[in-house]
């Protein structure tokens, strides 16, 4: 006897939804698959197989601000997640195969599967097992407003919906600039108008900080308040709970460790999701009784997604939809340079051609990687002049064992500037630029005299 398909959906949802959220969060790159074919090989135990398809609708709003209010109208981008599952004890892993044809204008960028694993190539195709079900797969479709075509022909063609989020939220940190290891206290406040299920994430499944940045950030799970459902120290802390009307606060400490000689600006991504959105998708049943798999075909404008099997399938439209507001992460780094400007004393009547700046960098940065065309001389944030391309040379002018880059600036441009602002006495000058694409900056004092 076949198990009721609807019951399986429910059971799977309970087991999986937190994990699936993680995987979905990790799949941050837009993925559109012109054609996907799913085929299951024949099995002697065909009557035990059960496969279902779920299409989730997500409304995602990205913001550079650190707060949204419940009554503001936001332009949500709408996207869909299509996923499915084969029931436990159904098929041996070798009998379940997904193939993809990624021809066309869209690039297939990855699979999610086998919790925490992202498969990078279209020809990789399989997942599981995990502790609760044997096999899972899912495809991630993300539709940006620029994409002229809607992947699911049967769905509404709306791509942007302007609506109120239905909740308010703020993200705040007590400290965002780190020149040495320190702790950042992150607080997320969520204002709820009616009792609703929420998921609050600080960080994301793809990692708390980008790869190859010269600092690390680690979530100190023991400091999370209230107790979260999940903590992945390098990636995220996650709460999933029902919130009563009122204001709720979530917080955690993050340890920031910059590389030596690097200054870091960091604010983590924060995501607030409300479940479910009470909305059905035109053309799709919200839930249905079992249909045979051969009957299941999603026509798309990019290519048909075909499910081919004699197995029983159930599918749902508005199964796990959510409204999600994401406060974008902020990461910036600055290499702290040691600058010596020569001469130490500048006469405003001097007829000299150049002033010289020697730039030294922290030991794991190489002055040879400085792009001279980017080097600037500033005062109080105002650009005075750019470095001359020639002469410039690498040496060790002060014999301290640290290589320095010598650059020249136009002395008369500096004098003109200093006269204009009426500078006299000690003046702090800044030299900045890019080293291997990363900003560096340092300052030195000169004495400005008349005569
Ligand atoms: Ca000096
Ligand atoms: Ca030196």
Task: Label this structure with key terms.
single chain, 451 residues, mainly beta, Immunoglobulin-like, 2 domains, 2 helices, 7% helix, 48% strand, disordered N terminus, binds calcium ion
Task: Write up this protein.
This protein is mostly beta strands and 451 residues long. The chain contains two helices and 34 strands. It has helices at 5-26, 411-421, and strands at residues 35-40, 50-63, 67-68, 74-86, 96-101, 111-113, 117-119, 135-141, 160-163, 167-173, 177-178, 182-192, 196-203, 215-225, 230-232, 236-243, 246-258, 262-267, 270-275, 291-292, 297-298, 305-308, 312-316, 322-327, 330-336, 338-342, 345-347, 354-360, 376-379, 382-386, 392-395, 404-410, 425-435, 438-449. The strands form six sheets. Strands 2, 4, 8, 9, 13, 15, 16, 19, 20, 23 and 24 form an eleven-stranded mixed sheet that branches. Strands 11, 18, 25, 27, 29, 30, 33 and 34 form an eight-stranded mixed sheet that branches. The chain has a five-stranded antiparallel sheet with strand order 3-10-12-17-14, with no helix packed on it. The chain folds into two domains: 5-332, no CATH class; 337-449, Immunoglobulin-like (Sandwich), CATH 2.60.40. Residues 1-53, 83-158 and 278-319 have low confidence and may be disordered.
């Amino acid at each position: 006897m076949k198990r009721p398909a609807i019951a399986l959906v429910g059971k799977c949802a309970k087991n999986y939804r937190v994990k699936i959220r993680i995987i979905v969060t990790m799949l941050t790159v837009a993925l559109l698959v012109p054609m996907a074919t799913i085929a299951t090989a024949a099995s002697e135990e065909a009557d035990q197989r059960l496969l279902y398809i779920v299409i989730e609708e997500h409304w995602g709003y990205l913001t550079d601000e650190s707060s949204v209010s419940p009554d503001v109208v936001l332009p949500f981008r709408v996207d869909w997640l299509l996923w499915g599952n084969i029931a436990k004890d159904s098929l041996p892993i070798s009998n379940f195969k997904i193939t993809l044809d990624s021809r066309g204008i869209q690039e297939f960028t990855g699979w999610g599967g086998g919790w925490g694993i992202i498969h990078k190539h279209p020809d990789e195709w399989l997942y599981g097992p995990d502790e609760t079900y044997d096999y899972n797969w899912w495809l991630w479709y993300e539709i940006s407003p620029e994409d002229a075509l809607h992947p699911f022909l049967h769905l509404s063609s709306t791509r942007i919906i302007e609506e109120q989020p239905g909740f308010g939220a703020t993200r705040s940190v007590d400290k965002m600039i780190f020149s040495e290891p320190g702790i950042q206290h992150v607080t997320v406040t969520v204002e709820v108008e009616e009792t609703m299920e929420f998921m609050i994430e600080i960080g994301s499944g793809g990692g708390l900080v980008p790869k190859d940045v010269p600092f690390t950030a680690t979530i100190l799970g023991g400091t999370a308040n209230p107790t979260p459902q999940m903590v992945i120290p390098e990636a995220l802390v996650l709460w999933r709970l029902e919130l009563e009307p009122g204001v709720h606060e979530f917080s955690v400490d993050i340890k920031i460790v910059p590389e030596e000689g690097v200054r870091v600006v960091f604010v983590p991504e924060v995501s607030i999701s409300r479940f479910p959105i009470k909305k059905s998708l035109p053309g799709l049943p919200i839930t249905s009784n079992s249909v045979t798999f051969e009957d299941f075909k999603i026509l798309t404008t990019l290519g048909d997604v075909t499910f081919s099997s004699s197995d029983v399938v159930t599918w749902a439209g508005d199964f796990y939809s959510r409204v999600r507001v994401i406060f974008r992460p902020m990461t910036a780094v600055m290499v702290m340079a040691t600058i010596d400007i020569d001469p130490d004393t500048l006469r405003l009547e001097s007829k000299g051609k150049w002033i010289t700046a020697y730039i030294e960098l922290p030991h794991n940065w190489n002055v040879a990687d400085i792009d001279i065309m980017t080097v600037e001389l500033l005062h109080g944030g105002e650009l005075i002049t750019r470095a001359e391309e020639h002469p410039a040379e690498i040496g060790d002018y002060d014999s301290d064992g640290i290589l320095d880059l010598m650059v020249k600036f136009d002395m008369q441009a500096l004098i003109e500037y200093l006269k204009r602002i009426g500078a006299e006495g000690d003046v702090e000058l800044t030299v900045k630029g890019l080293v291997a694409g990363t900003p560096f900056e340092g300052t030195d004092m000169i004495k400005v005299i008349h005569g």
